[in-house]
Automatic annotation (TrEMBL):
Keywords from the UniProt entry: Coiled coil, Signal
Keyword Magnesium annotated: no
Gene3D superfamilies: Skp domain
Family note: Belongs to the Skp family.
Secretion signal, residue range per the UniProt entry: 1-18
Pfam family, any one: OmpH
Coiled-coil spans in chain: 60-124
Protein name: OmpH family outer membrane protein
């Protein structure tokens, strides 16, 4: 995010510098047309709520459904494993008074091993689910990115700003254009 903001500030500074250079040049020679106005018109940008557009895409709904199904499978398996552990633990508690010390230790180590496996499974499933989510969402993000690239080139923007999470608290609407609806229409 810092890199983006630094790039944005640099672009704006360069544009402002170009405008002031062009303005002083225009003042020096009255024969040239009013170039600052052309530069100002060329410095337009687009802005949108990326999340809003993303969530309105039909592909997003499909991807989220796939992720939900996968998550449910992992949750079901975690629940099954937890029930198995609880059953063995209850059996251990009921019989622990009657077990000889070696059987007691064996059962305790079995329970500890099951507990360790359950924890490892939960961690691994969480990691795998996160990875699967990235893989499933990658084509959706790529499709949105391609649409933004095309719209940016077609409309002559110098950049497109994502206004989510209050990253851009002010947008000069005379220099920028809200393209949320344009992108939504393109992605239908």
């Amino acid at each position: 995010m810092r890199k983006f903001l630094l790039t944005l500030v640099t672009l704006i500074s360069l544009a402002a510098g170009a405008q002031s250079t062009i303005s002083t040049t225009s003042l020096q020679t009255e024969q040239q047309p009013a170039v600052p106005q052309q530069v100002a018109q060329a410095l337009i940008f687009g802005y949108l709520s990326y999340d809003s557009v993303l969530q309105s895409m039909p592909d997003y709904a499909t991807a989220m459904q796939q992720i939900k199904i996968l998550k449910n499978k992992y949750d079901e398996e975690a629940e099954r494993v937890e029930k198995d552990f609880n059953k063995k633990y209850e059996e251990f508690l009921e019989g622990q008074r009657d077990f000889p010390p070696t059987i007691l230790q064996k059962r305790q180590s079995e329970l500890q091993e099951l507990l360790d496996k359950n924890i490892a499974f939960k961690e691994e499933s969480s990691r795998l689910l996160e990875s699967a989510e990235k893989t499933i969402m990658a084509p959706v993000h790529r499709k949105l990115s391609d649409a933004l690239q095309a719209i940016g080139r077609e409309r002559g923007y110098i950049f497109i700003i994502n206004t989510d999470n209050n990253t851009c608290p002010f947008v000069n609407q005379t220099r920028g254009e809200d393209i949320t609806h344009i992108v939504r229409e393109r992605l239908k």
